[in-house]
């Protein structure tokens, strides 16, 4: 592609003579002859410092935010914005041929996007998905590195979705991606807001900054779908100047409301009511917060033209999401749940959801992530101690932080409820083994924090760690130990050697 074609619609001044560009990158290590290098200033590194190395490697042009004195430089007021627009141009602006639905919020993004895609498909529409667990191009499943990919990967994905005949794309829009303008130049038919609770303050510093990052999605949206049960959702309903649909569990002021909730251990029945319409939903996922996610998905689908009946039918056929209130197969007289709850609000919701269906004790195993907002650790400890009957406090991706420092910060919250037993086992594998060995019939054991993740980050090293596999291995080893103990006991009685 010619440089001037690539720069179409990108605010800039200067630049070398028009030339053929062979590729785009913001990583100087990936530069090959003829490529366009975009200087991005990040938290840890500034791409401007690597521009000379990029030119030496053969970059035909360098997009920069300040004058570097390079003959091939293109000056842009915001290189993050420019990078997004350049990547869109490189792939021929495929997003313009797709109907985009963006979902943002602290909790529920993955569940809502998966529900929306399944409802759209049940109504006969081809859809793609971009999210935390994986990406989907119709039926093709691809691994995901980030909740919201960088612009080059994102537009490459859009290009493939157009080629596969997708009509819709539903995607998670993280606050980091919004703040870093990874979605620059996109236009969403619908933006969905789930909720906002404490998270990512290591990056945003204040809840107001966090909220404003989320709010920026709606500058790119035709319609907003907002949760009236959340204080920030109500604030958005007052502040946004675009058409909006609201949803709620029980608040009749919302456009669409969930009525007559009938929860069971594995599902929730409710009536989807709004605008003179009503339909029964038999959601095969437990928990009141799952109903909130379903209402968000329903409203999103209604906003793009589906009927209430189509939304209800699609939700009733939804499959659960890996690592979200996932009941692990154990064959034991107690229940083991793995869930991605890694924030105070997420932990509180999963424990509250499991309490009504727990005949014995409600146990929780959790940790707090390293190199992330430390102020939430004590809150998570307090919530666990207040809502659970027993705690196993362990590690959850400590990264390069000292895991015991993290654990002690969580223990400050646990100590507010001294009657709740708490076992501290830093090694997560050992912690799960201890929890399984001490679970009793009727108990519910919640493994919180990892969810779908199949790795642990310890001391800067990433190791394989899939809790579904770990539980299966530990239970199999536990079964063999018991069989050996029974065999030895029989030998002692009979005198066999």
From TrEMBL:
ATP binds at residues 105-111. SUPFAM superfamilies: MurD-like peptide ligases, catalytic domain, MurD-like peptide ligases, peptide-binding domain, MurE/MurF N-terminal domain. Pfam families: Mur_ligase (PF01225), Mur_ligase_C (PF02875), Mur_ligase_M (PF08245). It catalyses: UDP-N-acetyl-alpha-D-muramoyl-L-alanyl-D-glutamate + meso-2,6-diaminopimelate + ATP = UDP-N-acetyl-alpha-D-muramoyl-L-alanyl-gamma-D-glutamyl-meso-2,6-diaminopimelate + ADP + phosphate + H(+). It comes from Candidatus Anaerotruncus excrementipullorum. This is UDP-N-acetylmuramoyl-L-alanyl-D-glutamate--2,6-diaminopimelate ligase. Residues 103-301 form the Mur ligase central domain. Carboxylation is probably crucial for Mg(2+) binding and, consequently, for the gamma-phosphate positioning of ATP.
